[in-house]
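Hey L., structure's done. Input below.
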Amino acid sequence: MYVSPTKGGLVMLSDMLSKLPPSEKKIAQYILEHPQEAVSLTASELGERCNASSAAVIRLCKSLKLKGFQELKLRIVGDLNKSEHEGYRDIKPNESVDAVLEKMTTNSIQALRETSEIVNLADMATVVDVLIRARNVHFFGVGASSIIAMDAQQKFLRINKPATAFTDVHVVAMNIANMTSEDVVFGISYSGETSEVYDILQLANQKGSRTVSLTHYGNSLIASAAQLNLFISATKEATFRSAATSSRLAQLHIIDVLFMCVASHQYDKTVQYLDQTREAIRFMKEQRS
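Output:
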């Protein structure tokens, strides 16, 4: 039995704020500014406070991919009960090593915490089941997301799950050409707007394969193309974003969770496969010594 998380409501509202239509945006802004008050209101009362309707409140919850206003309120109550933390902190000129270490650690923890709070456990369980049943899993990402794809491939190969992580879109397309409904294509893009990943997911859909996306939270081109969606928090990346540090860690975290869930469901086989891969690596090292 999978129970929805009881935190992350304020993160969801903040992440989605700029993408909401005007009536829903007013309500979201009000909740972010008055969370304590908002959780004590009904949908009708909240709508009246925002010069909107109760229907707009319900539409907001749907935009957040929640079951209803009650779930949103429960998540916000959970947020209000959390201990205070510093949030994302940017690096300043000529920072000391200890200051950079402390800030980066804080930012990384924050990204993982917010991502865990917005996870839809039922959706993740479905993806785990799809991965377990898959004949092959094809991970695909561009740029920094290709690193996530290669990490995922390496993990699943270790437990005897056939997986690929090609970075060339044409090679991936050729791979998809002979896929069936037993194959899974897993598109990774923090922005959710990478055209190459979108095209690959669309091609996989045409071939009847299962498609999964991993993007930042909210509506996006790639999420619309995939049959199953997983999200990380739309982290507030610092100025020095070239390595997409916080978002990369959150993506790796989701891959790790999926891997561990699959491994747990086939525990005895996983132990056997891991022993065999360790033995193979040990043999190769001995050959070079």
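The chain has a mean pLDDT of 88. The two ends are 50 Å apart (CA to CA).

-- N.
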